Amino acid sequence: MVLSVRHRELPPSLHFDRPHPRIPLDELNVTVRRHAGAWPRPDAPLVAGVSSFGMGGTNCHVVLSDWRPEPATGVGDAREPVAGSSTGAEAAPGTGGGWLRTGAGDALP
């Protein structure tokens, strides 16, 4: 999905042939992408979700968004974290474990 946001193109769904006959996709207003194509509203901010479900019960959901720099206003702290989470043993308390970045793209300590 990172490349999809970067290139502003949605990929087709993998391994999709036909929907289950008992799932009313039309009634639910849901479509399955069969071919690569542009995002529905390319002028709006692009937001995508990626989920992973592990066999051992480890689950993860990541929300990605494009970043459009805004002119500096002189208000606020440029080192304020944008988003992130870390609970692993390698993460020091109060840090993003090296995964958090500021709006300016700098890694948080």
Distinctive features:
single chain, 109 residues, mainly beta, two-stranded antiparallel sheet, 9% helix, extended
Q: If you had to describe this structure to a student in words, what would you say it looks like?
A:
With 109 residues, the protein is mostly beta strands. The protein has two domains: 2-65, no CATH class; 69-109, no CATH class. It is built from two helices and four strands. A hairpin with a 5-residue loop joins strand 3 (47-53) and strand 4 (59-65). The protein is extended and about 55 Å long.
Number of helices: 2
List the uncertain runs: none
Distance between the ends: 27 Å
Counted up, domains total 2
The number of strands is 4
Percent range for β-strand residues: 15-25%
Radius of gyration: 19 Å
- Please trace the helix and strand order, writing H or E for each element: HEHEEE
What's the shape?
extended
Helix percent band: under 10%
Task: Specify the structural class.
Answer: mainly beta
Strand order of the largest sheet: 1-2
Mean of the pLDDT scores?
A: 76
User: Can you summarize the main beta sheet?
Assistant: 2 strands, antiparallel
Please give a quick description of this structure.
By secondary structure, this protein is mainly beta.
